[in-house]
Structures are given as structure tokens and as C-alpha cells.
Amino acid sequence: MHNRTRIALLAAASAIAVAGCTTMQSGPAGMSFFVTSVNPGKGGDLGGLEGADRHCQSLAQAAGAGARKWRAYLSTQAPALNSPEFVNARDRIGKGPWQNAKGDVIARDVDDLHSANNRITKETALDERGRLVNGRTETPNKHDMLTGSRPDGTAFGGGPAGGSRLPDMTCGNWTKGTAEGSAMTGHHDRAGPIGAPWATSWNSGHPTVGCSMDRIRPTGGDGLFYCFAAD
Question: What share of the chain is helix, strand, coil (3-state, %, to 5)?
Fold first, then answer.
């Protein structure tokens, strides 16, 4: 075999090997991001972060992706403004990359996820079964995703859950399912009534007007949230 032919064949084999290492699986085995298809049943009362994580894990398990460690993209507030007892959503979800059930990569890492380059849209923010989630122009509108977070994925200052006078942005750290309180939401379809950054934000658009399902729905949501594989 001529040297030129041998070199060409080796190069082709190397290219195939690299492609095989970098290609991500689609379907349940490769899924590392989804939108919950349903709320656990109590509006903003998700059973705290642990309950929200269990909901993510349960939905992933039912979809065939339960072998991974799933975490809800949710922040919690501290009991006081200067207290360190808060949790940032961005710190809970692993390092990435993350992809939906169809293999579409939505972000390479945490910084990419919280940049203008992330690929979260109505077409990519699928539920655990790979199905589209209703957006702003559909009935019922389900585009409000519970996050309790600021645009960079960090928590707000302490809220009423801990006795502070600052606004509640997490439905009492995800333990409140009553008409009182509120939670920050983002739009999975990146759509709003105007083109302002908050209106098209995937994770920090506007708060709900309460924490019960009846008070979450009027602004365009169904108590859904994002789940990420943290491993």
C-alpha cells in the first residue's frame, strides 16, 4: 500500500473515532435537560428543593432516564438580607453540557447556559418525553417556568419565608401553595408581550401573583420547572 493511501486511511479512521467520542446520544440515555410535564400538585409548594428534585427524578425515571442524578433549577432565599443561607439554582445542576430528549444541546456549561448564546427555545425546551410544552400563543399557556432566580441563576435577597421584609420570590422556598407569596418565573419559549429582556428571559421574567395553582396560572404558567442532570 502506498504511503499516501495509508496516511489517508489513517486520517479517515481518526476522524471517525473523534466523531464517535464527541457525538451525544439522543433519547432517554442521553437526555440531561427537560421541562417537567406536570406540577407535583400543590402549585408553588414543591416540598422544598428536596421535593422538587424528587419530582425531577421521578419523571426522569418514568421516561427511562432515572440512572442519572436529577436536580430542579430552583433558587432559595435566605432568612435575612445578609445571611449566607441561600441556594443558587446555577450551583445545583452540574457542569454540563446538557441536551434534551431529542439530542439538541441547549448549553455547553453553566456560563453558556446563563449567556445570550444558550439554545433554550420553545422547540428545544421539551418535556421528559420529548414533547413540546405550550407557549404564550397556545391554550392553555404554560410558558412560565418556576425558577426563583435572577438572570445569572443566583438567588434573590431574603424573603418573607424567613421573616424579612424583602419580597418572596420562591413561594416560601418552595413550601407555599396558598394564594399568598410569589415566585419568579422565566419563559421557556422566550416570548413575551414586548421585546424587553425580562419578557424574553428563560429564567427571570416576572413573578407569579400567588403560590396556589389558581394564582400561578393567570400570568401564563402551570407550575412547571426545569430539570437538569447534575452528573
Answer: 25, 15, 60
Strands 70-72 and 221-229 turn out to be antiparallel
Coil/strand/helix, residue 21: helix
Q: Position 179: which residue type?
A: A
Instruction: Give me the residue label for grid cell 419578557.
Output: 199
The residues that bridge with 33 in the sheet, in sequence order, are: 228
Closest among 112, 110, 106, 84 to 188, alpha carbons compared? 106
CA 201 to mean position of chain CA atoms: 12
CA triple 134-140-146, angle to 5 deg? 65
How many helices (H) and strands (E) in the chain?
Answer: 5, 8
β-bridge pairing 206-207 and 98-99: unpaired
The pLDDT tens digits for 135-186 are: 999 999 999 999 999 999 999 988 765 556 789 999 999 999 999 999 999 9
CA separation for the pair 114, 75 (Å, rounded)? 14
The label of the residue with cell 414533547 reads 131
Peptide bond into 160 cis (omega under 30): no
